[in-house]
C-alpha cells in the first residue's frame, strides 16, 4: 500500500462523512470536508485540527474544481432527497469533470445495493448482474457507470482512478436515515418504534463506524481501483430481533408500529418521501446480502462490530440524546 496525499470528503456533513473523517484523523492524515453550507461542517469537524473546511456549489464547474484543488483522492458521499434521484447522474458527471480538471488522482464512490435489483441468490459477490428494476436503482446504476467510465481519464500529467464501494443498509449512533434508527429512539424514549415491514425477514446491516478504516485503507491501495467492491455486515438479523435486544437494554418489551407496502402507499398520498419508499420495499421482502471475500483478500481482515455490540452502542447513543434533550427542555422551562 502507498502513502497518499490529501483526501477530500465531498458531501461530508452526513454520518458516513463524519465516520470517514474520524478514521482519517485517527490515522494522522489531513483531510478536507466539502459541503454546500459551512455551519454543519463546522459543527461536525470544527474540533479536528486535521480537517480543512471548504464550501462548494456542485452546479458550478469552477466551484467543483476549486473544492478539489490540491487533493489526491476524493471520496464522494453526496446525497440527494429520496424523491430527487434523477439528479444523481448529472451531479456525478459535473463532479467528475471538475475533479479531473483539478488533477485528482483517485475517486471513491460510496454506493448501495440498488443497482443490482433482485438478488438471484444470497450472498452475492461482485459478479452478480446489475439489473435494477426500480427507478432509483437505474439512477444509481447510471451514476456508477459514469464513475467507472472515468477510470483512466487523463488531465495533463495525471490520470484519474476510480472505484465503487458498495454497502448494505447501515446503522449507528443517532443516524436518522438508518432503516432501524426508530427502534433505538423508541427504546430510549419508552415509546412505540415506527418501522418498515416486514420485520421478520433476515436483513443485512453494517455498523457505520466500521466503514471508516476500510475507506481510509482504500485511499492508499492503488490496485483496488477500476472496479467495484462489496463491504458486508456481520451476517443478517431481523428487525424484530434488533428491537428485542434494544428494548431489553431499556428494560422494556418491544413495541412496534409496522408499515408494510400497503400502508406506505396510504402514507404516500400525503408524504412524498413515504411514496418513494414503496418501490424499494422489495428489499424488505427480498433482501440483498453481500459477500465481501474479494475485498478481504485484497486488504486483509476487516474488523466488524457484532450486532450485539452495535445495537448496544446505538441504543446508548439514543438514550444519551434523549437525556440531553430532556435536560434542554427543563432548562428552557426554567428560563421561560
UniProtKB/TrEMBL annotation:
**Domain NAD-dependent epimerase/dehydratase, residue spans:** 10-213
Which InterPro entries does its entry note? Epimerase_deHydtase, NAD(P)-bd_dom_sf
Q: Which domain of life is it from?
A: Bacteria
Name of this chain's protein: Nucleoside-diphosphate-sugar epimerase
- Organism name: Paraburkholderia aspalathi
Q: What is the lineage of its organism?
A: Bacteria, Pseudomonadati, Pseudomonadota, Betaproteobacteria, Burkholderiales
